[in-house]
Design brief:
Layout: E1 10-12, H1 30-35, E2 42-44, E3 53-57, E4 70-71, E5 74-86, E6 89-97, E7 121-128, E8 136-140, H2 143-147, H3 178-204, H4 215-222, E9 233-234, E10 239-240, E11 242-243, E12 262-265, E13 274-279, E14 284-288, H5 289-296
Parallel strand pairs: 1-7
Antiparallel strand pairs: 2-7, 3-5, 3-8, 4-5, 5-6, 6-7, 9-10, 11-12, 12-13, 13-14
Length: 304
């Protein structure tokens, strides 16, 4: 499911008495949050674990309001309870399933029931605590309860009964969908092009990496070497690649092995559980999510 680049972050201004902890006054700016450097702009349901909580509130009475989502009869959000201060106002950091596309019909939101799966995408949504009317149904996140699917940590199913002699064997699992393979290939191409642009920038700027944040500075630094702005987006979810703000503007000589320093990567693992990563020396590589967690540890400041 694709996201519009114009919908990088849904900021929900819901309508009460604050009962949450005080927001830090020196928290991240809105531009930093929009860059994805502090909180990823999108997650999958399977990225959530026992540290998260599911919350809900009554559906809106506005017939044309598609800024909320009805899931199994309620509006669902997921949060770790983090609060950020923007313009002196405290916001609760939540994630909400992607909303249905608004149509010209007068169908109310109560007619939309979205059945979530482990690969369903969740968009970041900041909820203004000062105008928050009510949260209800607060409970620990449970993937099975939310989607009907077993969580990765759930006990494995019992082994299947052996196929009797003469019976037809069980078919092999299907290959990855064509769209997933195509997105991997297109993203690999984007990262390769961005890697070439980074190398060109370094050669023209005394072996110094380009500014990686804010994202506008990164785009401006490489625009003469990139054919299209689309190459800055992960085609799987149509959102900008995440950047390593720790490496922004650093000379390559700062690192003993630039080939091991990630500077750009896909915001979330693709459906095949792989993630494309671009390194400081300009080469890119697709790796499993387990490999990415090892590579990113200690080297990046904004890994999802």
């Amino acid at each position: 499911m694709k996201h519009s680049p114009l919908m990088l972050c849904a900021i929900s201004l819901i309508a009460a008495s604050p009962t949450f902890a005080q927001a830090p006054s020196d928290g991240p700016s809105l531009s930093t949050i929009l860059s994805g450097a502090v909180y990823p702009l999108v997650l999958r349901m399977r990225d959530l674990d026992s540290h998260w909580s599911a919350i809900s509130r009554p559906p809106s009475s506005d017939k044309d309001d598609l800024n909320v989502l009805v899931h199994a009869g309620r509006i669902s959000s997921y949060t770790k309870g983090d609060i950020v201060s923007i313009g002196g106002e405290p916001f609760l950091v939540t994630y909400q399933p992607e909303l249905p596309t608004k149509s010209t019909s007068t169908t109310s939101t109560s007619d939309f029931v979205l059945h979530l799966g482990s690969d369903s995408l969740l968009d970041i949504a900041l909820v203004n605590i000062h105008t928050l009317q009510k949260l209800q149904g607060i409970k620990p996140f449970n993937l099975t309860a939310e989607t009907g699917e077993l969580s990765p940590s759930a006990p494995p199913a019992k082994p299947a009964t052996p196929t009797p002699v003469g019976a037809r064997p069980t078919p092999a699992p299907p290959a990855a969908p064509i769209n997933d393979v195509a997105n991997d290939a297109l993203s690999d191409s984007n990262l390769k092009a961005l890697g070439y642009a980074v190398v060109q920038y370094c050669q023209m700027n005394k072996a110094t990496l380009p500014p990686l944040a804010p994202v506008t500075d990164f785009h401006d630094a490489l625009k003469t070497h990139i054919k299209s702005d689309v190459q800055f987006l992960d085609p799987e979810i149509n959102l900008p690649y995440m950047v390593n703000v720790k490496a922004s503007g650093k000379p390559l000589s700062f690192y003993a092995k630039p080939s091991q320093i990630p500077i750009l990567w896909e915001p979330i693992a693709h459906v095949d559980d792989s993630r494309g990563v671009l390194f400081a020396d300009g080469h890119s590589k697709r790796m499993t999510e387990a490999e990415w967690q090892k590579v990113s540890k200690g080297h990046v400041s904004s890994a999802p």
